[in-house]
């Protein structure tokens, strides 16, 4: 067997969840995308800003929560601005751009904890350089071009307060059709 998958390993996705208003708006934009341009990747995913993604033994989850609690409770809540539609032509992604500074600060803290305390490699616990909220990833260049030409002229500005970080999990599997992430735990940030 070329690849062996350990059933005791979970995939984790650490995210910031936007306000209910932004979540509802993103759902509307995803529905609009689907109606105008057809099926696409991430069209059914809930609005979020990804901070990092990694695999970890299931038995280490309580230690992960403890470490995240210890470090993230030291951070104060913060405000994030969402400012318009943007696109990554290379991978066909249409997204809402978010302010970077605070998100990258939290990402760096998380990846430091993951690398130092859990020995997760740099390649797995990467810091994303362009935090964003995904609308959809197009299936082909034509779909991307058409969708980007539509969304690029829509103005969207909003702000929301971040008071917690959400950690999602799913079982690591060899299947190409992966299951949805489920809530593992949340960490409340320190008071503003």
The beta-strand count equals 8
Radius of gyration: 17 Å
Biggest beta-sheet profile: 4 strands, antiparallel
Fold-level CATH name: Cyclic Phosphodiesterase, Chain: A
* Count of spatially separate domains: 1
Q: Fraction of residues in helices?
A: 25-40%
String of helices and strands: EHEHEEHEHEEE
How would the global form be characterised?
Answer: globular
Average of per-residue pLDDT values? 90
- Structural class, please? alpha+beta
Distance between the termini: 52 Å
* CATH class wording: Alpha Beta
Residues in β-strands, percent: 25-35%
Uncertain segments are none
Keywords: Ligase
Protein name: 2'-5' RNA ligase
GO molecular function, one term: ligase activity
InterPro entries: 2H_phosphoesterase_YjcG-like (IPR050580), Cyclic_Pdiesterase (IPR009097)
Outline the structure in words:
- With 192 residues, this protein is α+β, with helices and mostly antiparallel strands.
- The protein has a single domain, classed as Cyclic Phosphodiesterase, Chain: A (Alpha-Beta Complex).
- It contains four helices and eight strands; from the N terminus they run βαβαββαβαβββ.
- The chain has a four-stranded antiparallel beta sheet with strand order 2-1-7-8. The chain has a four-stranded antiparallel beta sheet with strand order 5-4-3-6.
- Strand 3 and strand 4 form a beta hairpin.
- Helix 2 crosses helix 3.
- The chain starts with 8 loop residues before the first strand and ends with a strand.
- The relative contact order is 0.26.
- The mean pLDDT is 90.
- GO terms for molecular function: ligase activity.
- This is 2'-5' RNA ligase.
- Pfam families: 2_5_RNA_ligase2 (PF13563).
- InterPro entries: 2H_phosphoesterase_YjcG-like, Cyclic_Pdiesterase.
- Keywords: Ligase.
């Amino acid at each position: 067997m070329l690849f062996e998958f350990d059933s005791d390993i979970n995939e984790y996705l650490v995210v910031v969840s936007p306000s209910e208003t932004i979540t509802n708006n993103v759902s509307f934009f995803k529905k609009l995308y689907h109606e105008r341009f057809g099926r696409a990747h991430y069209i059914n995913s809930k609005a979020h800003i990804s901070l990092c993604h990694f695999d970890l033994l299931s038995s280490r989850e309580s230690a992960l929560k403890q470490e995240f609690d210890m470090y993230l409770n030291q951070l104060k809540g913060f405000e994030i601005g969402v400012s318009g539609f943007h696109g990554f032509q290379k991978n066909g992604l249409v997204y809402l751009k978010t302010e970077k500074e605070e998100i990258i600060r939290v990402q760096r803290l998380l990846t430091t904890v993951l690398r130092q305390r859990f020995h997760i490699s740099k390649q797995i616990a990467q810091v994303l350089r362009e935090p964003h909220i995904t609308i959809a990833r197009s299936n082909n260049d034509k779909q991307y071009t058409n969708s980007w030409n539509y969304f690029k002229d829509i103005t969207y500005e909003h702000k929301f307060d971040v008071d917690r970080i959400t950690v999602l999990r799913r079982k690591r599997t060899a299947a190409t059709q992966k299951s949805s992430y489920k809530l593992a735990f949340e960490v409340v940030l320190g008071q503003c």
